[in-house]
Amino acid sequence: MSGAPSPRPTSRPESELTTTGASPPEPQQVDATTLEDINRGNRPIRASLISAFVVPVLVIGQAAWATYVVCYKLAHQRLIMRDHQKGAGCAVIVLHALLMFAAGVAYMRLIQVIYTDPGLLPLGITRAKRGEGGNDDMKTVMKRWSEKRSVIHTTRPEDPHSREELFKELAAHNQHQADLRMEALKTFRPKEMFIVAPDCLPRWCKTCETFKPDRTHHCSDLGRCVRRMDHFCPWVGGIVSETTTKFFVQFLFYAMLFCVFMLATTIALFKRDNDRYGERNPWLIAMLVLSGVYTLFTVGMFQNSMWMLAKNFTTVEQRQFGMPLHLAVRISDWYTGDIDHLPCYAVVGFPSAPGEKWAVFETEPRARLWDLGSAYANICEVMGNSVWDWLLPFKYSPCVTHDDDISEYQFGPAALAVKNRVQA
């Protein structure tokens, strides 16, 4: 244990709160950062929500136009009717239909899950009781949050009296959040290993007023916490999360094949017409530009998505990569040494688990805790364990089940090494 971090000082008020039942901490000091956060959080976001509905309609419209050009203008009029190559023309139409069908099914499945089961975390009890959103339907959430944030504009008041009143209001808000957090600890069910905040308590969302499980992040576009949040994608009209990542990748795969086929067909016909007839049809030129742009986009998106699946990363985690995390590991059932000399960040307990202790360790800045050690294992956690699971957009990802008592998501060697380091 020569490389283990130094023990945290014996004064650990945050951890004592969970075992001694002491009163909640003093209200946090309100500073300019808090004001800026609130100002930024209340800015209208109607543009991103509008794009989530407009962009998919435009994409579907362009796909319909491309179908018209390829199947009618190129395959029917040019190959079948003009050049009398029925075999080639029919082959183009059939392949186009098959790829269009595969991409369409994946897209419809993705949209269906986005709007019915987007992976939202339930609201805290007090937040839900206030009637500010207990429905997990994403369309309802988006509409409510858009209306709420489009009319709220919090500005920094210049009048000193107004600023003092605002500071008091923020201090009361922070105290209220601290009280809610302490109350929620009474029913918090800790896993054997999980990520905690720097204060050694479970990560807390002030907006949803609930604890955030591992890999859960708050989506400002929806105003809700999302499990295994990746990003909010206007191209598909919603959130990419633990329930939708698999279908998102499948859609990218079939869309990429569709675009590559369209580009290859257009290039072949363009070269053929230019060599035989010396003409450059405007339909072919427009199709060449459109298919080329979408091929580059879908290939890049699919490649990036597969790379992150292979590393067991999300877009949010990739942006935060390099920041150390705080990993809580239950030690009461296997550690027999002196807790006061345990080389860890802190030792905590929770009212809902009397007699149990968790040691909190600060991870290495670039540790990949959920990397299972191989690209195949990482991909299988999202895509499934069989070829049919990878290709067919029907089953959910294996990672959506959270019935494991060890962790919310399966930890990799980097996280297990923390526990092994103490055992050694």
From TrEMBL:
Keywords: Acyltransferase, Lipoprotein, Membrane, Palmitate, Transferase, Transmembrane, Transmembrane helix
Localisation per UniProt entry: Membrane
First-listed, main subcellular location of the protein, grouped into a coarse class: membrane
Bias-annotated ranges (Pro residues): 1-10
Enzyme Commission number(s): 2.3.1.225
Catalyses which reaction(s): L-cysteinyl-[protein] + hexadecanoyl-CoA = S-hexadecanoyl-L-cysteinyl-[protein] + CoA
Domain Palmitoyltransferase DHHC: 203-319
Family matches, as Pfam families: DHHC
Region feature (Disordered): 1-30
Annotated InterPro entries: Palmitoyltrfase_DHHC (IPR001594), PFA4/ZDH16/20/ERF2-like (IPR039859)
Transmembrane portions of the chain: 49-75, 87-108, 251-270, 282-302
Membrane topology summary: Multi-pass membrane protein
Domain writeup: The DHHC domain is required for palmitoyltransferase activity.
UniProt family annotation: Belongs to the DHHC palmitoyltransferase family. PFA5 subfamily.
Name of the protein in its database record: Palmitoyltransferase
Lineage: Eukaryota, Fungi, Dikarya, Ascomycota, Pezizomycotina
